[in-house]
What does this fold into?
Amino acid sequence: MKIFGIDMSVKYIRYQLNGKKYLVQFKSNLIKGIYDVSVWDDDIGETDAKIILVYPPLKKTLAILWRIDLPLWIKKKRSALRKGVKEK
It folds into this structure.
């Protein structure tokens, strides 16, 4: 979202490492997760840092939940039903 020509979806993290100042710039939203990540050095500008991992988008998060949590939920429900049948 842009207001007065300024992109309001951009977020920043500034940090200092070994006496040098850096800035991590990224965009984030619920659907896409974190994207458009870049690392900037105060002295030389944008660096060639390799981004290895970012927060996944909603589609991948739902796929992970479906793949991991659904079988655990089914197993839990089955064991609860078996316990209920044995008690009668």
The helical segments are 58-87. Residues 75 and 81 are 10 Å apart (CA to CA). The mean pLDDT is 80.
